[in-house]
Design brief:
Helix content: 40-55%
Oligomer: single chain
Strand content: 15-25%
Order of helices and strands: EHHEEEHEHHEHEHEH
Radius of gyration: 17 Å
Distance between the termini: 37 Å
Largest sheet: 6 strands, parallel
Structural class: alpha/beta
Protein backbone atom coordinates (compact mmCIF):
# COMPACT_ATOMS: atom_id res chain seq x y z
CA UNK A 1 0.00 0.00 0.00
CA UNK A 2 1.24 3.50 -0.80
CA UNK A 3 1.19 5.25 2.56
CA UNK A 4 1.32 8.98 3.20
CA UNK A 5 2.59 10.61 6.40
CA UNK A 6 0.60 13.74 7.26
CA UNK A 7 2.21 16.64 9.18
CA UNK A 8 0.49 19.71 10.55
CA UNK A 9 2.47 22.67 11.91
CA UNK A 10 1.42 25.75 13.84
CA UNK A 11 -2.04 26.98 14.71
CA UNK A 12 -3.26 27.31 11.13
CA UNK A 13 -1.84 23.95 10.03
CA UNK A 14 -3.41 22.18 12.98
CA UNK A 15 -6.80 23.77 12.37
CA UNK A 16 -6.73 22.72 8.71
CA UNK A 17 -5.39 19.29 9.73
CA UNK A 18 -8.19 18.75 12.24
CA UNK A 19 -10.77 19.46 9.57
CA UNK A 20 -8.89 17.21 7.14
CA UNK A 21 -9.00 14.26 9.56
CA UNK A 22 -12.65 14.93 10.33
CA UNK A 23 -13.53 14.67 6.62
CA UNK A 24 -11.22 11.71 5.89
CA UNK A 25 -12.52 9.75 8.90
CA UNK A 26 -16.09 10.35 7.81
CA UNK A 27 -15.31 9.19 4.25
CA UNK A 28 -13.80 5.98 5.55
CA UNK A 29 -16.52 5.34 8.13
CA UNK A 30 -14.20 5.80 11.11
CA UNK A 31 -15.75 7.21 14.29
CA UNK A 32 -14.05 9.54 16.80
CA UNK A 33 -12.50 6.62 18.70
CA UNK A 34 -10.99 4.99 15.59
CA UNK A 35 -13.56 2.21 15.25
CA UNK A 36 -14.91 1.35 11.79
CA UNK A 37 -18.67 1.83 11.40
CA UNK A 38 -18.92 2.04 7.62
CA UNK A 39 -21.40 0.41 5.32
CA UNK A 40 -19.26 -0.48 2.30
CA UNK A 41 -16.09 -2.50 1.71
CA UNK A 42 -14.85 0.25 -0.61
CA UNK A 43 -14.31 2.44 2.47
CA UNK A 44 -11.64 0.03 3.75
CA UNK A 45 -9.99 -0.54 0.39
CA UNK A 46 -7.40 2.25 0.54
CA UNK A 47 -7.67 3.10 4.22
CA UNK A 48 -3.98 2.34 4.80
CA UNK A 49 -2.95 5.40 2.81
CA UNK A 50 -3.74 7.63 5.81
CA UNK A 51 -4.46 5.24 8.70
CA UNK A 52 -2.53 2.60 10.64
CA UNK A 53 -4.57 -0.41 11.72
CA UNK A 54 -3.88 -1.57 15.27
CA UNK A 55 -4.06 -5.19 16.39
CA UNK A 56 -7.26 -4.30 18.25
CA UNK A 57 -8.88 -3.35 14.93
CA UNK A 58 -8.82 0.38 15.64
CA UNK A 59 -7.61 2.81 12.99
CA UNK A 60 -5.18 5.57 13.95
CA UNK A 61 -4.27 8.50 11.67
CA UNK A 62 -0.68 8.52 10.41
CA UNK A 63 -0.37 12.10 11.52
CA UNK A 64 2.22 14.23 13.34
CA UNK A 65 0.95 17.35 15.10
CA UNK A 66 3.52 20.02 15.93
CA UNK A 67 3.53 23.50 17.38
CA UNK A 68 5.82 25.71 19.43
CA UNK A 69 3.16 26.35 22.07
CA UNK A 70 0.88 23.87 23.84
CA UNK A 71 -2.44 25.70 23.31
CA UNK A 72 -3.31 24.32 19.88
CA UNK A 73 -2.49 20.77 20.95
CA UNK A 74 -4.71 21.09 24.00
CA UNK A 75 -7.64 22.22 21.88
CA UNK A 76 -7.19 19.24 19.51
CA UNK A 77 -6.98 16.84 22.46
CA UNK A 78 -10.09 18.23 24.07
CA UNK A 79 -11.93 18.41 20.73
CA UNK A 80 -14.14 15.73 19.16
CA UNK A 81 -11.17 13.97 17.49
CA UNK A 82 -8.94 14.03 20.57
CA UNK A 83 -9.17 10.26 21.12
CA UNK A 84 -8.34 9.44 17.50
CA UNK A 85 -4.65 10.39 17.40
CA UNK A 86 -1.62 8.71 18.92
CA UNK A 87 -0.64 10.68 22.06
CA UNK A 88 3.08 10.34 21.16
CA UNK A 89 2.50 12.16 17.89
CA UNK A 90 1.81 15.49 19.56
CA UNK A 91 5.13 17.35 19.64
CA UNK A 92 5.14 20.87 21.05
CA UNK A 93 7.31 23.48 22.71
CA UNK A 94 6.33 25.93 25.42
CA UNK A 95 7.47 29.35 24.27
CA UNK A 96 5.72 29.92 20.90
CA UNK A 97 7.28 31.60 17.87
CA UNK A 98 5.32 34.87 18.17
CA UNK A 99 4.95 35.29 14.38
CA UNK A 100 8.73 35.30 13.95
CA UNK A 101 10.07 33.11 11.12
CA UNK A 102 13.60 33.04 12.56
CA UNK A 103 12.32 31.73 15.90
CA UNK A 104 10.61 28.85 14.14
CA UNK A 105 13.53 28.13 11.82
CA UNK A 106 16.67 28.83 13.83
CA UNK A 107 16.05 29.01 17.59
CA UNK A 108 12.90 27.58 19.21
CA UNK A 109 12.07 25.37 16.20
CA UNK A 110 15.61 24.05 15.80
CA UNK A 111 15.51 22.79 19.41
CA UNK A 112 12.31 20.87 18.75
CA UNK A 113 13.00 19.55 15.23
CA UNK A 114 14.94 16.42 16.28
CA UNK A 115 12.11 15.15 18.46
CA UNK A 116 9.68 15.77 15.58
CA UNK A 117 11.94 13.86 13.20
CA UNK A 118 12.00 10.92 15.63
CA UNK A 119 8.21 10.68 15.38
CA UNK A 120 8.35 11.08 11.58
CA UNK A 121 10.95 8.30 11.34
CA UNK A 122 8.89 6.01 13.51
CA UNK A 123 5.79 6.55 11.36
CA UNK A 124 7.81 6.08 8.16
CA UNK A 125 9.42 2.86 9.38
CA UNK A 126 5.99 1.39 10.10
CA UNK A 127 4.99 1.90 6.47
CA UNK A 128 5.07 -0.92 3.95
CA UNK A 129 5.80 1.34 0.99
CA UNK A 130 5.98 5.02 1.92
CA UNK A 131 4.75 7.27 -0.86
CA UNK A 132 5.60 10.63 0.68
CA UNK A 133 4.75 13.39 3.12
CA UNK A 134 2.19 16.17 3.19
CA UNK A 135 2.41 19.25 5.39
CA UNK A 136 -0.41 21.65 6.24
CA UNK A 137 0.88 25.02 7.45
CA UNK A 138 0.62 28.76 6.97
CA UNK A 139 3.35 30.99 5.56
CA UNK A 140 2.43 34.10 7.54
CA UNK A 141 3.08 32.94 11.10
CA UNK A 142 6.24 31.82 12.86
CA UNK A 143 5.78 28.11 13.52
CA UNK A 144 4.08 26.95 10.32
CA UNK A 145 6.46 28.94 8.15
CA UNK A 146 9.74 28.76 10.08
CA UNK A 147 9.53 25.33 11.68
CA UNK A 148 7.45 23.94 8.80
CA UNK A 149 10.12 24.77 6.23
CA UNK A 150 12.94 23.60 8.52
CA UNK A 151 11.17 20.26 8.86
CA UNK A 152 10.68 20.03 5.10
CA UNK A 153 14.39 20.57 4.44
CA UNK A 154 15.32 17.92 7.05
CA UNK A 155 12.83 15.42 5.57
CA UNK A 156 14.11 16.21 2.07
CA UNK A 157 17.65 15.36 3.27
CA UNK A 158 16.58 12.15 4.92
CA UNK A 159 14.03 10.91 2.35
CA UNK A 160 15.27 12.38 -0.96
CA UNK A 161 13.34 9.87 -3.08
CA UNK A 162 9.92 10.47 -1.47
CA UNK A 163 7.33 12.98 -2.58
CA UNK A 164 6.97 16.13 -0.47
CA UNK A 165 3.69 18.04 -0.72
CA UNK A 166 2.72 21.15 1.18
CA UNK A 167 -0.64 22.85 1.59
CA UNK A 168 0.53 26.37 2.32
CA UNK A 169 -1.81 29.15 3.38
CA UNK A 170 -0.70 32.46 1.89
CA UNK A 171 -1.10 35.61 3.99
CA UNK A 172 -3.76 38.05 2.91
CA UNK A 173 -3.80 41.79 3.66
CA UNK A 174 -7.47 41.77 4.68
CA UNK A 175 -7.26 39.09 7.36
CA UNK A 176 -3.79 39.85 8.66
CA UNK A 177 -2.95 40.03 12.34
CA UNK A 178 0.81 40.56 12.07
CA UNK A 179 3.04 43.09 10.38
CA UNK A 180 5.63 40.38 9.72
CA UNK A 181 3.47 38.18 7.48
CA UNK A 182 4.93 39.22 4.09
CA UNK A 183 8.48 38.70 5.39
CA UNK A 184 7.68 35.29 6.86
CA UNK A 185 6.02 34.26 3.59
CA UNK A 186 8.95 35.42 1.45
CA UNK A 187 11.46 33.51 3.56
CA UNK A 188 9.25 30.39 3.47
CA UNK A 189 8.65 30.43 -0.29
CA UNK A 190 12.41 30.35 -0.87
CA UNK A 191 12.63 27.18 1.25
CA UNK A 192 9.62 25.56 -0.43
CA UNK A 193 11.06 26.13 -3.89
CA UNK A 194 14.25 24.33 -2.79
CA UNK A 195 12.77 21.40 -0.91
CA UNK A 196 9.25 20.43 -1.99
CA UNK A 197 7.88 18.63 -5.03
CA UNK A 198 4.46 20.27 -4.96
CA UNK A 199 3.06 23.23 -3.06
CA UNK A 200 -0.66 23.99 -3.10
CA UNK A 201 -1.13 27.66 -2.30
CA UNK A 202 -4.29 28.40 -0.35
CA UNK A 203 -5.51 31.98 -0.07
CA UNK A 204 -6.15 32.82 3.56
CA UNK A 205 -8.94 35.23 2.69
CA UNK A 206 -10.82 32.57 0.70
CA UNK A 207 -10.42 30.15 3.60
CA UNK A 208 -11.56 32.83 6.05
CA UNK A 209 -14.79 33.56 4.14
Amino acid sequence: MREIVHLQAGQCGNQIGSKFWEVISEEHGIDTTGEYHGDSDIQLERINVYFNELSSGRYVPRSVMLDLEPGTMDSIRSGPLGQLFRPDNFVFGQSGASNNWAKGHYTEGAELVESILDVVRKESENCECLQGFQLAHSLGGGTGSGLGTLLMSKIHEEFPDRILNTYSVMPSPKVSDAVLEPYNATLSVHQLVENTDETYCIDNEALYD
